[in-house]
Amino acid sequence: MKLDRYDFRILEILARDGRITKSRLAEAINLSVSPCWERLRRLEKAGVIEGYSARINPRAVLKRTPVWMQIELKQHNAESFSRFEQFVRDTPEVTECVAVGGGVDYLVKVEAESIDAYQRLIDEWLVSDLGIERYFTYIVTKTVKRQDPPLVFDEE
C-alpha cells in the first residue's frame, strides 16, 4: 500500500490523539470530511491502523518492578530458540522480548510484583527445560524516555 503525505499526517495525528473527531482530523490535514474518512477507513482495512486504545500508566494502577534481562541460551538452534520464545510468550510477567545479535541472544523485560517475585520467576526458569546458559539482571531505577518512534514522511 502506497501512503502519501495525507495518510502520514492522519497517522501522525492519530498516534498522538486517537480520540480526535473526524471533522477535526479532516481540518488538521486540510481535507474535507468525506475524503478524510475514506482514507481513514482504507488505512484501517489495510491493517495500517490496527486499532485504537488508551495508553495506561501501569504504575498508577499496579505496583510493578520493571527488570531488564540479558539472556544467553546454551544451544543455538531453531528448536532452542523456538522453545524459549514460546515460553516467553506464555509468561504474563514478560512484557517485552527481543532477539538480538552480539554477545547475548535476548533482551527481556519483566514486570514483577517485587524483586522477590522476579527472583522466584527466574528460579523457575532456571530449573525448567529452557536451556538458559547465563543471564544478567538490570533493575530499572527510573524510566528516562518511553515513546513510539515518530512517523516521518519523506516527500520526494
What would your notes on this structure say?
The protein is of the alpha+beta class and 156 residues long. The chain folds into two domains: 5-45, Arc Repressor Mutant, subunit A (Orthogonal Bundle); 58-139, Alpha-Beta Plaits. The protein is built from six helices and four strands; from the N terminus they run ααααβαββαβ. The chain has helices at residues 5-16, 22-29, 33-45, 58-61, 78-89, 115-127; strands spanning 65-73, 94-99, 106-112, 132-139. A four-stranded antiparallel β-sheet has the order 2-3-1-4, covered by helices on one side. A hairpin with a 6-residue loop joins strand 2 and strand 3 (106-112). Helix 2 (22-29) packs across helix 3. The chain is elongated, with a radius of gyration of 21 Å. The mean pLDDT is 91.
